[in-house]
Design a protein that fits this description.
The chain is globular. The chain has one domain. It is an all-alpha fold and 63 residues long. The protein is built from three helices and no strands.
């Protein structure tokens, strides 16, 4: 599932709304053990364009 959600995010990264929607869905699909790896990958790939969106979802997971 991890590779699938990565592929989806890469394909929708051109659109902010779509990216956020798919990120939210991805976090619901992944196993807890996969989330840390997914988080690190997301920040490597998308922090230039979507850091506020990433922070919104990953910081809320931590708390």
């Amino acid at each position: 599932m991890l590779e699938y959600v990565k592929t989806v995010l890469m394909k929708v990264s051109f659109d902010g709304r779509l990216f956020e929607k798919e990120l939210r869905k991805a976090l619901n699909l992944l196993l807890p053990a996969e989330i840390q790896e997914f988080k690190e990958w997301c920040y490597r790939k998308f922090s230039n364009n979507y850091e506020p969106v990433l922070n919104k979802y990953f910081i809320s997971l931590a708390g």
